[in-house]
Amino acid sequence: MTFFFQLFVTGLALGMMYALIAIGFVIIFKCSQAFNIAQGQIVMLGAYFGYTFLMPLRLPVWIAIIASIGVGVVMGLVIERLALRPLLGQPALAIVMMTIALAGVMDGIAIMGWGGNYVTYHDVLPELTLKLGAVSVPPSSLLGLIVSVIVVAILMFIFRYTKIGLAMRATAEDEQVTRSLGIKATMVYALVWVIACVVGVVGGVLLGGVSGVSPPLSEIGLKALAVVILGGLDSIGGAILAGVMLGILENLAAGYLDPLMPSGGGLAGVFPFIIMLAVLILKPHGLFGLKRIERV
């Protein structure tokens, strides 16, 4: 049972990081009905910036995190103003295609700026330790869990109890009505992209501390997409619960099922996508997504 609980706890930490990244998908989909295909690349660039602030520049950890958040804010404002705002009023497919183009640009930035090299910064992160009986939580996983829980809690508070969150929810429901009430949709869209980039950057810094940084880290965006589909495309709470579920299930698959595979592993890497396929077949709207009915 100790092995099970060890996998469960580390999977919980991984799942909260998945949930953090998935929130970026959800809020953009709620406001524009389009997927941000570049969310994984935002995570990857955030991890590279975290490495730059922590290693070459040798900034203190919390200053490096604040600087990374600042990069996320600037990134969100630039993307929304230069790439997405000209597409207001266009079909959702146009936004999706633009995010695909942004993903390619960000991959190129990673190669030009850091050579696409694999880099790590494990030793500079705070050494937090937690032991529950015979179960010990790795320091990097514990830090990721704590930061993810704090960021998710702040976001949930903003969405539910502030005027900004109310404006975001109203814009997601009906943009024309919110415009008539004097709410600037462009301001809301800019804020949405800032939040999506900030959570992506924070998730990237945390994941980089666990597994290192390289261009393939952007594939985390596909796993976060599986989280979103499982939880429901327009449900923030569903993304949090689904992220935790997939993180735990992926870790359990790595511990129990991978050793049974003929090649010795590989199932854990595709496990989130197996879950995604099952959900699309059995419950296309996800566990908590709203079922939309169109009357003809």
Could you give the order of the helices and strands? HHHHEEHHHHHHH
Number of strands: 2
- Share of helix among residues? over 70%
**N- to C-terminal distance:** 55 Å
The biggest beta sheet reads: 2 strands, antiparallel
Shape, per Cα inertia axes: globular
Question: What is the structural class?
Answer: mainly alpha
- Biggest sheet: strand arrangement: 1-2
Per DSSP, the total helix count is 11
How big is the Rg?
Answer: 19 Å
Mean pLDDT: 83
Any low-confidence stretches, pLDDT <50, length ≥5? none
Number of domains: 1
Give the topology, please.
Blueprint: H1 2-32, H2 39-54, H3 61-84, H4 92-114, E1 130-132, E2 135-137, H5 139-161, H6 163-173, H7 175-180, H8 185-211, H9 220-231, H10 236-257, H11 267-282
Antiparallel strand pairs: 1-2
Helix pairs in contact: 1-5, 1-8, 1-9, 1-10, 2-3, 2-4, 2-8, 2-9, 3-8, 5-6, 5-8, 6-8, 9-10, 9-11, 10-11
Characterise the protein shown here.
- The chain has one domain.
- It has helices at 2-32, 39-54, 61-84, 92-114, 139-161, 163-173, 175-180, 185-211, 220-231, 236-257, 267-282, and strands spanning 130-132, 135-137.
- The mean pLDDT is 83.
- A two-stranded antiparallel sheet has the order 1-2.
- 71% of the residues lie in helices and 2% in strands.
- It has 11 helices and 2 strands, in the order ααααββααααααα.
- The protein is mainly alpha-helical and 296 residues long.
- β1 and β2 form a beta hairpin.
